[in-house]
Each structure stands twice: as structure tokens, then as C-alpha cells.
Amino acid sequence: MSNLRSNIVSWLGRKYFSRIQKNGFDLSKMSFLPDATLAPLRRDGLDPITDLSRTRAKEPISKIWLPFGINAWLVTGYDETKAVLGKAKGFSSDFTNLAERNIGVAPQQNPGGLGFSDPPTHTRLRRLLTPEFTMRRLSRLTPRIHSIVEERLDEMAAAEGPVDLVESFALPIPALVICELLGVPYEDRDDFQRHSTARFDLFGGANASLGAMSDSLSYLHGIVRKQRETPGDGLLGMLVKEHGDEVDDQELAGLADGVLTGGLETTASMLALGTLVLLQAPEHFAAIRDHDNSVDPFVEELLRYLTVVQVAFPRFAREDMEIAGTRISAGDLVLCSLSGANRDEKLGPDMERVDPHRQAPSHLAFGYGIHRCIGAELAKMELRAAYPALIRRFPEMRLAVPAEKLSFRKLSIVYGVDELPVLLR
Q1: Which of 95, 186, 223, 406 is in Cβ range 3.0-4.6 Å of 179 for a Cys bridge?
Q2: CB atoms near residue 377 (< 10 Å)
Q3: CB 412 within 8 A of CB 202
Q4: 264: closest CA among 335, 184, 370, 349?
Q5: Residues sharing a CB contact under 8 Å with residue 396, sequence separation 6 or more, in sequence order
Q6: pLDDT tens-digit profile of 151-198?
Q7: What is the mean pLDDT of each run of 10 residues along the chain (425 residues)?
Q8: How far is CA 34 from CA 17, 212, 333, in A?
């Protein structure tokens, strides 16, 4: 039945897209794509759907269908994903690749930042940011991170009845930390959270996602203008004071947007989903509660297991090449499933469960190569501070609803749970 449904959807899709091709592809219809194409964005609870593992076992680099004759590949194997992400000269991530293909994306919708840029622009911009994301520089945020966590716990402790951990804990912590880092007003966190969630959620169509990007960038342009006039002590103020002549307002807003959304929604999802894992695994809950040395390996394993950023930025082949025996032609689109790669059985036995004691190669939760997430260490600092503080403050914490009643995102580049109601005592 599933194969029949997939074939029907695929046929209808081809008929629909051939009819509208002359006018460009309406990205709001992205959720209409065949199941095989959307597989890397779908999950069954915390786990990637079984079709993804079947595809990986059969073809770690497989052909997927996209409209307009775009030749596209889905990479699900660990080694193959590293090969693609590590081949910076062979693949382009530049936004113009999307804008030039008549798929309803305009050049002015370019969000900027590091993710959608290639060297030498990417190299120049990353060089500006890197000093602020070294462990030595980030360490100055450690006291503030712990303070933010304790403030959220105090507020939760004063609540009566069930508490939504997403709203009360998982979202505010990274929002406060990122606003502290950037030097932007925390009172605008609600708008940031809304735009950040919307831009990664493709269930309503990719035009809605691009609209959220535009709204976020419009606000950040205003912040950048104020920082130009009176540079503050945050990241934006530092960039203006030290590199103001090297970077224009568009680039500054793009960098801020990338830091904000990359460090907000992803960390929030990890905090919520990681807590769910702890609530369903008493042995891990007890280990984190009682032993400080259990926290670091648990966080690393949780990053691999959850891989909340499900796919890497799209890559376009610059030249003909062969990867793991698969011939990829210049112009082909390549999507890497990070969640699929991190569950690859080549990494070791039983990768479908959480095991903080496993000796496995480095995970790809933050990507790989020149586009590896620049804020990876900051995210891990927040996770290491938040998990133990939460369960030590509330050792009797438990789900307030059956786990099967939880609502997860349907089609989202960053996976997450909508609400996580818990009882604290």
C-alpha cells in the first residue's frame, strides 16, 4: 500500500509540476513531494523513519525525485556524508544556486551568513566570527549560562501543576544566551523564537520558511544600524568596532541571523528532546543526577542519537565526480541526511539506542568540514549546564502526559517537540 501511495503521489506531483513549470515552482507545495524525497525530514518519535535506514543499507547515495528535471541525490551513509561535506572545492552551498533554478526563490531572499556562502566569502566571514567562538572566549559566558539556568529553574519551581518544559526551560535558555552573546534586546525573544521555528518548519511550505527569514533579517538590519551608531559590548558591537570597514550591513545582519537561529532553535530542541530521553531512561537519569563525569559523554551521545538538524545545507556539484562508486554530475543537487548518517551501523553496533559508553567515531550532528557549526562548543556548554541542573533540582520529574500523546514536528529541518508537559514533584 505504501508503494502504491508513493507512486500515485509521485505521478500527481509530476503532473502538477509540469503544469506550473512555465510559471516557476511554488515552494509552498513542498510538502506534496513524494515520501522518498521527504524521508530525511520525517521521524517516528525520536527515531528516523525505517525507510531511511533501509535506503542507507541498500544505497547510501540514492537518487531522489525533484521537479524541473533537477538531478538530486540523498546521502544517508556516514562515510559518504563526510566525503560530500568535506569536499568544499567540489560542492557549492551558495544561495544563488537556488535562486537561479526558477523554483520560486528570489535572489533578495538570500539570508546571508555562513551556511549559504562559499569561499572566499565564507572564509572571510568565518574568520571574523571564529575568535568569538573559541573555548577561551566562550568561557566568559559560563557564569551567565549557569545563572540563566538557575533563574529558569526558580521560576519553574514556583509554578503550580504541570509545566511545559519547552516554554519554561528549553526555549528561554538559548534565547537568553544568544541575546547575551549578540548584544540584542532580550525583550524581543518571542519574535526571535517564532521566526526561528517557522524558518525550519516546511510543513506549511518553504515560502513560509523564507518569509520568516525575511522578517528576522528586517529586524536585525535595524539592530545593525543601531550598532553602527553606538557599538555595544556584544558580538555585533565587536564586529563593528574591529571589522566595521570589512563587512557591510547585509553581511552583519546575515551573520547575526545565522548565530541567532543556529544557536536558538537547535539548542532548544536538544534541551527538550534530551530531557525526554532522560525521562524515559531511568539509568541515564540517575547517572546524570549522581555523577558529574557522566555528563560530557552523555551529551555527545545524545547529540549523535537525536541529531536535531536533520539535513545539511544543500550542496550543488561544481564538477563531475564519483563518491563511493556513485557518479555525480556537475549541477546535481546533493542532500546529506545527518540523522541517517549518525545512525549508520558502520559506526558500531546498536546505533538505534543511547549508549554514552560507546566508542564511536565523531558524530556529524554539527555537520563537517568548512561548514561545521561555528557555535558547536557554545551549544555543548549550555547542554552540559542545563541537564544536570534540571534533574538535580527536580529528581521526581516525570511526564505529565503519556509519551505517545506528545506532538512532534511533521516536516522540519530542525526536529523538535511542540510541548513537553512535565510534573516536577
Answers
A1: 186
A2: 15
A3: yes
A4: 184
A5: 423, 424, 425
A6: 999 999 999 889 999 999 999 999 889 888 887 766 666 665 555 555
A7: 36 32 41 77 95 95 85 96 96 82 64 84 92 87 95 95 95 88 71 55 47 68 87 88 88 84 88 98 97 97 97 95 95 96 95 92 95 95 98 97 94 92 96
A8: 12, 25, 17
Contact 388, 270 (CB under 8 A): no
